[in-house]
Design goal:
mainly beta; 7-stranded mixed β-sheet; 50% strand
Length: 117
């Protein structure tokens, strides 16, 4: 089992920045693909950014150039640096872990991000 704990959410004005962190338990973090998802009020959860164990990265179009996903395998942590935040970025942000070959994924509890106009 993998436990994920997100942190770093909060309230920020439009144009501001936040950095989200997701700490994973266990010893196989370096082998896992990791992702950040978000669920805005009244909308379905969507992928924001993902990073594989090999460092391949993809972003949803709406955050390209503004958000950066990274990982530190020595700290079992994946980050989401968010800049130039917009009110439409307001959502609960979730971390997801995908261990290779396990056939299941794990989710964190979520962290709220509120961007005021």
């Amino acid at each position: 089992q993998v436990q994920l704990v997100e942190s770093g959410g909060g309230l920020v004005q439009a144009g501001g920045s936040l950095r989200l962190s997701c700490l994973a338990s266990g010893s196989i973090f370096r082998l896992m693909s990791m992702g950040w998802y978000r669920r805005a009020p009244g909308k379905q959860r969507e992928l924001v950014a993902a990073i594989t164990s090999g460092g391949s990265i993809n972003y949803v179009d709406s955050v390209k150039g503004r958000f950066t996903i990274s990982r530190d395998n020595t700290k079992n942590t994946v980050y989401l640096q968010m800049t130039s935040l917009k009110p439409e970025d307001t959502a609960v942000y979730y971390c997801k872990a995908d261990p290779p070959g396990w056939g299941m994924v794990y989710w964190g509890q979520g962290t709220q991000v509120n961007v005021s106009s």
